[in-house]
């Protein structure tokens, strides 16, 4: 009888140890969310790439452990970029700021109005800025997404 009681006691202690070992390993694997980040995307005349970029961003955003607040600024596009972004706004979670095209004389010597307006709409202390206006228009959206969104955030 004592052998059975000792065996059950050892079995209970072993199960107790395995339970706490699994809990400790689970704590190591789980990610705690990082600080909230605002992602500011500034673009102009990117009608061919706007839908691709926003859909890839939405898919990529679900796989990240950081809380994102996405703000997209259309800096006076002369093509249909603003219309495409307005259509996507119902399905994807982002804020859209549309600016009117500015005269070249107004822009010289002035701070970047698109960037400043976008920063006003960002609600978090950390802001990650992706300025697509500085890239050549011939650059494909796939390359832009790979460089800025996949490799830049590690």
TrEMBL record:
InterPro entries the UniProt entry points to: Glyco_trans_2-like (IPR001173), Nucleotide-diphossugar_trans (IPR029044)
Organism (species): Desulforamulus hydrothermalis Lam5 = DSM 18033
Residues annotated as domain Glycosyltransferase 2-like: 50-97
Protein name as annotated: Glycosyltransferase 2-like domain-containing protein
């Amino acid at each position: 009888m004592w052998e059975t009681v000792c065996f059950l006691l050892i079995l209970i202690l072993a199960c107790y140890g395995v339970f706490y070992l699994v809990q400790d390993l689970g704590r190591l694997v789980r990610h705690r969310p990082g600080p909230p980040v605002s992602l500011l995307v500034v673009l102009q005349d990117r009608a061919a790439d706007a839908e691709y970029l926003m859909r890839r961003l939405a898919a990529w955003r679900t796989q990240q452990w950081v809380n994102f607040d996405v703000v997209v600024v259309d800096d006076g596009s002369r093509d249909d970029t603003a219309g495409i972004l307005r259509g996507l706004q119902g399905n994807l979670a982002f804020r859209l700021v549309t600016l009117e095209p500015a005269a070249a004389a107004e822009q010289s010597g002035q701070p970047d109005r698109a960037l400043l307006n976008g920063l006003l709409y960002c609600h978090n202390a950390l802001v990650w800025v992706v300025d697509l206006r500085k890239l050549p228009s011939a650059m494909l959206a796939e390359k832009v997404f790979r460089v800025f969104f996949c490799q830049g955030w590690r």
